[in-house]
């Protein structure tokens, strides 16, 4: 019977091995994306902390408007950490920089969501623009993410990955079946690597022993990846929690349009900080029309990760709090869906689980290699036996 399971494990492993290797390797590189990016671009994200009050947000946004007079500010992000820069996102379709070259429109409408987007990083104490970033710029990590999510093949790649997920599920199951020893006295040998053995034995143990230890984690990675590959997986999250997809509908500003001008960024930030005092950051988005609301969003402290959000909606002219939406009050399906990414990336428990995910992915990337070597060794052994048998005749 084990020959049957070994054949399934072997042929499915050969079929999906390369894809599994690429996914594990790209996943390994992506685990510490945020930390590596912040170190590599320290000037962009950090300033020398000065023991004085930061400038008001409206003074900082005025600097941006002066630098990009025809651009529209679409978001402002303020961190609780006083050593972090202020991030101001803008969109422009062709407005001239002050004293610089024009911003290319790339065939899109001027301003608003259709324009060219850019993020400016400002020193909160001096208003100096320390760095600029094009969010659409192709970086190494963006390339790795495309590889990880679609194999650089768009929807076709996503479909291939979705099918490969189920293939790897079967490989895991057959691998566990093959791991179980026939006799109890063999159990100890299956739980540790025989480091003083031959290279063939070490290769065998690296595949079998480490494979067992990584199985649970690989299973979790596969399970959490289903939401990106199949719509029915998302639907199932809401079904099993008895909830419906979607967030609560945002209210409209209730004050008359002619009553007042839109509230200041500083006023919006103060309201956000009052509601979410210990949040790591606050992101402010101004309304897009006369009835829209000012939205302040922050990372939820009720979650074990930073992929869940709380937000408040403010009347754009009076600053009155119209709605407070907290992650803990959202439908169970929505909350569960927000956990998929941090579990998948290992961010759920901070640096300890990130290191765990890093090593599991790195070790898992070796399984197609050690498995192929095992297969080739068996082929050579079989040929050698057949040759001995033939010579004996």
What number of domains? 3
* Average pLDDT: 88
Please state the overall shape, judged from the principal axes of the Cα atoms: elongated
> Topology as H/E string?
HHHHEEEEHHHHHEEEEHHH
Quaternary organization:
single chain
Total E-strand runs: 8
Main beta-sheet strand count, sense and barrel state: 8 strands, antiparallel
Considering DSSP H and I runs of 4 or more, what fraction of the residues is helical? 40-55%
Number of helices: 12
Gap from first CA to last CA:
31 Å
**Order of strands across the widest beta sheet?**
4-3-2-1-5-6-7-8
Class of secondary structure makeup: alpha+beta
Query: Strand share of the residues?
Result: 5-15%
Write down the Rg. Answer: 27 Å
